[in-house]
Amino acid sequence: MDNTLQTGLQESLRIQLTELNNRSRWYSSQLWQIPFAFISLVGLLIGNIATKFPDLLHFTFLTVGLFGILVLIHMNGIMNGERRAVENLKKIEAALQIPQTVEYKPTYVRPLYLLVWLSTVTSIITGAYSIYY
Questions:
Q1: Which pLDDT does position 6 carry in this prediction?
Q2: Would you put residue 99 in left (φ > 0), alpha (ψ -120 to 50) or beta?
Q3: Model confidence pTM above 0.85
Q4: Is residue 128 predicted with pLDDT exceeding 80?
Q5: How far apart are CA 124 and CA 126, in angstroms?
Q6: In angstroms, rounded to a whole number, what is the distance separating the alpha carbons of residues 103 and 72?
Q7: DSSP 8-state code for residue 118
Q8: pLDDT in tens, 16-52
Q9: Does residue 2 carry a pLDDT above 80?
Q10: Where are the alpha helices (DSSP H) in 53-132?
Q11: Phi first, then psi: what are they for 19, rounded to 5°?
Q12: What is the DSSP string of 1-33?
């Protein structure tokens, strides 16, 4: 292969490495921020509705549950994006012949995902139960 072409390819791979590294960090930060933002908003919303409009509380719980489903879908997409970014980082590190240091560890966000899932299910059950009782 032409030396100029090889140098250009190496530079392109280094740029991709930097961009994918930034992207994987962004995905990771989102997976930490979204659950806490969701729980905070849910707490504020339910607290305000409970004090000001208690008759709408069942509707609020159902709305929170539906919103929680959307948040879970979004978190799944982010986890998938993070996994793809890490897989591509591994390929680029191999192509550049540098030590592979990147690793995908979904287990550290599972408790946060579970937190959103539990609050979503609890909200739906509470909302459905409060309609009838």
A1: 80
A2: beta
A3: yes
A4: yes
A5: 6
A6: 23
A7: H
A8: 999 999 999 999 999 999 999 999 999 999 999 999 9
A9: no
A10: 57-95, 110-132
A11: -65, -45
A12: --HHHHHHHHHHHHHHHHHHHHHHHHHHHHHHH
